[in-house]
Design a protein that fits this description.
Oligomer: single chain
Helix content: 25-40%
Order of helices and strands: EEEHEEEH
Shape: globular
Radius of gyration: 17 Å
Structural class: alpha+beta
Strand content: 25-35%
Largest sheet: 4 strands, antiparallel
Number of strands: 6
């Protein structure tokens, strides 16, 4: 399987370390033991596209987010992990502004 690193170009998957599903979000520190148990141990096992984190250990040492089909291992996209985090933060900020605007309109 080839992973096209956004920094180094196409590389064999053996150069990377698989971190896992990119979807889980760490619970808040005060969330309780059950929330942390779910975060650490409970994972979906979807058949189809999934977002994953990979670390390019034998190359640039960069983290990437890969969208890969678990049925075929076909890779749909590879982007720097920082780009995904920034995009998700922007969406969350827009949602917070919208909620605040709704509250202010009442």
């Amino acid at each position: 399987m080839l992973i096209t690193c956004p920094f180094c170009g196409p590389r064999d998957a053996a150069e990377f370390t698989y971190r896992g599903d990119a979807a889980p979000v760490r619970p808040a520190a005060d969330a309780g033991e059950a929330a942390f148990f779910d975060y650490v141990y409970l994972r979906d096992n979807p058949a189809g596209p999934i977002r994953e984190h990979w670390f390019h250990r034998a190359g640039c040492h960069g983290w990437v987010t890969v969208v890969r089909d678990t049925r075929t291992h076909a890779i749909e996209s590879v982007v720097p992990a920082e780009a995904v985090v920034a995009a998700e933060a922007a969406v969350a900020a827009e949602a917070a502004v919208a909620v605040e605007a709704e509250g202010g309109a009442r």
